[in-house]
Design a protein that fits this description.
single chain; 341 residues; 11 helices; oxidoreductase; 15-oxoprostaglandin 13-reductase; NAD(P)-bd_dom_sf; EC 1.3.1.48; Zn-ADH-like_protein
Length: 341
Amino acid sequence: MYKKLQVFTKTSNFRQAIKLVECPLVKPQDEEVRVKNIFAGVNATDINITAARYFTDGKLPFDIGLEALGVVDEIGSNVTTFKKGQPVLALTSSGFSEYVYSSPKNLVPLPELKPNYLVTYVNGLTATIGLDKAGHVKAGDKVFVTAAAGGTGQIVVQWAKHRGAYVIAMTSSEKKAEYLKQLGADFIINYKTDNIDQVLTEKFPDGIDVVWETVGGEIYSTLFKHLAIRGRMVVIGSITNYSSEQSHGFGDVPISNFQTKILMRSLSVTGFMLLNYHDCFPEYFGQLISKVHKGEIKAVVDLGEQTSDGKFFGLEQVARAEEYLHGGKNLGKVVVQIQEP
């Protein structure tokens, strides 16, 4: 038997949505690989899935968890591309589980068993593909990054710098600001102590070329106002609204004369949903895994070791990890260790 989390109640309250269940540990089918899951990634959008907003047909109960990282435990008779004991990243919908059954096409081989490689999937691909294909970032651009010290934000900062941009990073604490400086951010805004509108007006009167927007609400409206001529806003999410029980999880953003503003200033506002860029995955995965392995990209993970209740270990700790993420307390990507290797 093995344990996994499943959603039994459709709600954005993760703790209320899930139950821990037991399943029989069976051999994989001929075309399957069974992975012993050691680390699972926590993503802000997990609570959109528990609320059945997307990535599920909503039939209860259903599995949860987008990322699993572990070792190949058992191989189906027709599988020739993987071997037992090999470290892999599983692209899945059941990552909060002690074991994952997967098609080989949804497994990515890894050079070593380290949780940092979890950053390369949802976070890393969103950051790199989103900046390149939706933000069209180029050398000399001024790029504003919201939630810059989070799992995705840390990669956005580094990728923008890699492209030759000037990076303005928004965060919430001095500790996170120090980390962002280490990543190469050129200018830091602490949204808890700084007036974003005032700072941007004074320091960047010509506007921002690319805004990486993950927050929604008032911050969205403020940043839209500061787009430069031909500026691009890339909308990744609206995390301030995810925990709402609204059916869609995204709040409305009232911007007066919106069409006039985007027309007269040649602005663009582009939504980015990672799965719509599936064709880009192989190219960008290869780059990200290589750069993380070589230390060319810092992919910090937060296992909750500095919290009062200690490390996120075991499936019972996933709900606490989700609450920690949505409380804005994390530095880097939030990860839960599911079990010992």
